[in-house]
Write a structure and sequence with these properties.
32 helices, Double Clp-N motif, 611 residues, 4 domains, mainly alpha
């Protein structure tokens, strides 16, 4: 939970733990966190309170007046957090994100405490000091812009440029030179802008030229805003937080454009994003340049074939999330490409690999459309010719179109809430519109349509067409599988023909996973519930006599839950939700008797997932 916390922020949480123990509390609440922040005393959070004329001694006194010490001494080492304290931490992380920070400092913890939270002692005490959230946030921004920070070692950062094109790297090297020319000990957004223009031949520079901007004009604008430093600087320089933010925006722009590299065009777009205090942004705005216009110009240029990364035409994609069968398809595609003496894997080779593999969902779908390997081979040979030289490379790179088809396969997997890529997703990926894709042309010629294939795949998956296709993770987690197995044993011991809801609930309680933790958090006495379920099984009567295997229905409802919650596997908590969605069952009635509702359980699961 605290990976991104600065040393001072972690110290505050450790002091909060001490304060809770001092008051004999078995948990850390918002008041303990506020006391920790006061006691730490030297971070931005404390500085903000002092700047807003808060008397720290009086603040401590006001908090302690509202606290009731526990009766017994607490010896536990690390205490748990109350839901309100967890909210403070979540709000602190959200506050950091809203300020564009990649760490959580004492200032963000203060913002977390300032959120209006019913029942929070800290929020009430801070409100009594006439403090508002906006007031505190403004003061934090003022202090940070003046250079005060919890994490001075992170004030300036350096980047690794593995995904940068040669031209983009050259821009950053020129930005370093420009910073040195001004005797600055850092690289700012203004230096990156100068580097872009000075590089001169990339997409970024071309865009600026198309807007009639040159190095002299931009240099004059920069000199209006910055002064040269007093001492000569000669070493490679770190990036300011604003420059870092611009580079992060460049990564986001590349991702949005589905590029696997960072070019000068992305750096240009990164500089154009709203970035409070960015000199480059001010200069570009003064010169009448707008983000949307720059993006349109870049897309126009790239559509005309201008690109920074010609050397990256063919790529090798990582296949970690591929099932064994999907990997086999790619290995067979590699073989097919070599058989044609091709130096790349194209969409046509993936299609041949899908059919040649023969046992996956993708191959089954094609067979259901009466297609076989010979028919597709003949079609492929109409469109491609064998290369002149034998190719013996171990693994060939994917062509841009094959890469695109695989990206579509990932999108299809995501749309189906699958956390793996199987042969069925590769099949769907090949059927997406992908200009110049030979596989798509062949499949269309053979009368195959994307919607029909998707329907067939969903039909096959619903039937469980391919139980032997080993996926990286199965539908059930280990614990959920144990719950179902335990329920089967209970039903057998109970001499029941079918598993009913009580057996599944008993399995959830016995397994002791997240499902039981949710029930505990909802103040359910699990020992009492266990006895009641057991008594109901032994003594009856069955209010809802079971005429069919309830397990199948519960699993279907659990699958709906994992899709809704965007999870890859059924866990014990999803089985619990499914039980509550089936009101005509004894388990649901029993849970409702303990004041457990579907919405409460769902809210608790979402809250726990965010921790």
């Amino acid at each position: 939970m605290f990976e991104r916390f600065t040393d001072r922020a972690r110290k505050i949480m450790a002091l909060a733990n001490q304060e809770a123990q001092r008051f004999n509390s078995e948990y850390i609440d918002t008041e303990h966190i506020l006391l920790g922040l006061i006691k730490e005393g030297s971070g931005v959070g404390a500085a903000v309170l002092k700047n807003l004329n808060v008397d720290m001694a009086k603040l401590r006194s006001d908090v302690e007046k509202l606290m009731i010490p526990g009766q017994d001494i607490v010896y536990m080492g690390k205490l748990p957090h109350t839901p309100l304290a967890k909210n403070v931490i979540e709000n602190a992380i959200a506050g950091a994100r809203s300020l564009g920070h990649n760490y959580v400092g004492s200032e963000h913890i203060l913002l977390g405490l300032m959120y209006e939270t019913k029942g929070s002692v800290a929020a009430q005490v801070l409100k009594d000091q006439k403090l508002t959230y906006e007031q505190v946030r403004t003061e934090i921004v003022n202090l940070l812009s003046g250079g005060i920070r919890d994490d001075d070692e992170e004030k300036f950062v350096t980047f690794s440029f593995e995904r940068f094109t040669d031209r983009a790297r050259k821009v950053m090297a020129l930005a370093n030179q420009e910073a040195q020319r001004f005797n600055h000990g850092y690289i700012g957004t203004e230096h990156i802008l100068l580097g872009l223009v000075k590089e001169g031949s990339g997409v970024g520079a071309t865009v600026l030229r198309n807007f009639n901007l040159d190095i002299k004009k931009i240099r004059l604008e920069v000199e209006k805003y910055v002064q040269s430093g007093p001492k000569m600087v000669t070493h490679p320089l770190p990036h300011t937080p604003l420059a870092k933010k611009a580079i992060e925006y460049a990564f986001e722009e590349a991702k949005a454009l589905k590029h696997n590299y960072i070019g000068t065009e992305h750096l240009m777009l990164g500089l154009m994003h709203e970035n409070e205090g960015s000199i480059a942004l001010v200069i570009l705005k003064n010169l009448g340049i707008k983000l949307d216009e720059v993006r349109s110009e870049i897309l126009k240029l790239m559509g005309g074939g201008v690109r920074d990364d010609e050397e990256e035409k063919f790529v090798r994609l990582p296949l970690e999330r591929f099932t064994d069968r999907a990997r086999k398809v790619m290995a067979l595609a590699n073989q097919e490409a070599q058989r044609f003496n091709h130096e790349y894997i194209g969409t046509e080779h993936i299609l041949l690999g899908l059919i040649k593999e023969g046992g996956g969902v993708g191959a089954t779908v094609l067979r259901n459309f009466n297609l076989d390997i010979r028919k597709i081979h003949l079609e492929v040979e109409k469109y491609v010719q064998s290369g002149p030289k034998m190719v013996t490379t171990d693994r060939l790179p994917e062509s841009p179109r094959a890469k695109k088809a695989i990206e579509y396969a990932f999108e299809e997997a995501k749309a189906l809430n699958h956390n793996y890529v199987g042969t069925e997703h590769l099949m769907l990926g090949l059927l997406h519109e992908n200009e110049g894709s030979i596989a798509l042309v062949i499949l269309k010629n053979l009368g195959i349509k994307l919607d029909e294939v998707r329907s067939e795949i969903l039909k096959l998956l619903t039937k469980g067409c391919d139980p032997n296709e080993v996926r990286p993770t199965t539908l059930y987690s280990n614990r959920a599988s144990k719950v179902i197995e335990s329920a089967r044993r209970e039903a057998k011991r109970d001499k029941k023909k079918f598993i009913d809801s009580r057996h599944i609930l008993l399995g959830i309680i016995s397994e002791g996973d997240v499902g039981t933790l949710v029930l505990r958090n909802l103040k359910v006495d699990l020992d009492v519930l266990h006895l009641e379920v057991r008594r109901l099984i032994i003594e009856g009567p069955d209010k809802y006599p079971v005429q069919e295997d309830v397990a199948e229905k519960i699993v279907k409802l659990a699958i709906e839950e994992i899709r809704s919650l965007e999870r890859g596997q059924i866990e014990t908590e999803h089985l619990l939700l499914a039980l509550l969605r089936e009101p005509r069952c004894d388990a649901a009635e029993l849970l409702m008797k303990h004041n457990v509702t579907y919405q409460q359980v769902r809210n608790e699961i979402i809250k726990m997932a965010g921790e």
